[in-house]
Amino acid sequence: MTALFSGHALANEPLTLVLDWYINPDHAPIMVAEQIGAFKAQGLDVRIVPPSDPALPPRMVAARQADLAITYQPQVHFFADEGLPLVRVGTLINSPLNTVIALDKQIKTPADLQGKKVGYSVSGIEQATLATMAQHAGIDPASIKLVNVNFQLTSALLAGQVDAVIGGYRNIEAQELKLQGKTPVVMNVEDYGVPAYDELVIVAHRDAIHEAKIRKFLTALQAGVGYLRAHPQKSWEAFAAAHPELRTELNHQAWLQTVPLFATDPAALDKARYETYEQFLYNNKLVKKVTPLTNYAVELH
Predict the structure, then answer these.
(1) What Gene Ontology biological process does one annotation of this record name (predicted)?
(2) pLDDT tens, 108-117?
């Protein structure tokens, strides 16, 4: 009986994390934390779940069907505007990944997009981002012809259907084009008037943010980031061995390119950054009101 009880007492606490997408190099610190036993060291049994639908993870957390979900900072603001009980508790990638990419050598800055066709996939946010970049460059956003390419960014660019695309990631699509022998012009959105934001964040249910297991998860994630930064190639080899279907040159390059972009302290919250981005969304009429930061983001230390 004692043995049974002690065994039960030592059981790791379960935690379900739903990813934003299928497993990819953007999730490296999570995978590394798992590889090195950082979750177990915190007494956690973390179940990492790729979503059946990328729109579902935060809503699963809101419905208490999962403990944590990976999502995007801009989405956190939208969820807050909707009144969903979701709070950002951690950051995975603390810089934007979004870019404008062109293959035309005549296009070097957003000013060169005047009269050009730009492919996009996500209405609202990408249009506002591009319009801000255009205004920053001193051109009329209306002079850019937007074409919905339905997530076929690189193929639309390679086929010449558009002159540039917005929404391609600097660590994925930009690398993909380079591997195809192209020399893409990559314009980082935050360099042209768009407020910087955290690309990937971790959200919890508002009623669960003080559960000890969330802090433990963030501690383990920080250990994963530290190990990844110290051993990027070794970590890649372990990841590729565990996920042989992902052992591609693109994923390898993306892995190495993304290492410097991971938050070294996942719990840390840049309050001004979130408030500035909230105002940006409000100014662009993408949210109905300015929601106080404490409603949707916390720092758990």
Answers:
(1) thiamine biosynthetic process
(2) 999 999 999 9
The mean pLDDT value for 256-267 works out to 98
Do β-strands 164-169 and 117-120 pair in parallel, antiparallel, or remain unpaired? parallel
* DSSP assignment letter at 297: B
Count CB atoms within 10 A of the CB of residue 149: 22
- End-to-end CA distance of the chain: give it in Å, rounded: 38
Question: Tokens 């391609």, residue?
Answer: 168
289 is written with which tokens? 């009101």
Does an H or E element contain 105, and which? Answer: none
Tokens for 242? 């565990």
| Residue 44 buriedness (CB in 10 A; 0-12 / 13-18 / 19+) | buried
Q: Please give the mean pLDDT across all residues of the chain.
A: 95
Q: Which domains does the chain have, with CATH numbers?
A: 11-94+196-293 (3.40.190.10), 96-189 (3.40.190.10)
> Which pLDDT tens digit goes with each residue over 24-75?
999 999 999 999 999 999 999 999 999 999 999 999 999 999 999 999 999 9
Radius of gyration of the chain (CA): 20
Q: What is the DSSP letter of 194?
A: P
Q: What is the pTM of this model?
A: 0.94
CB-CB contact of 36 with 227 (8 Å): yes
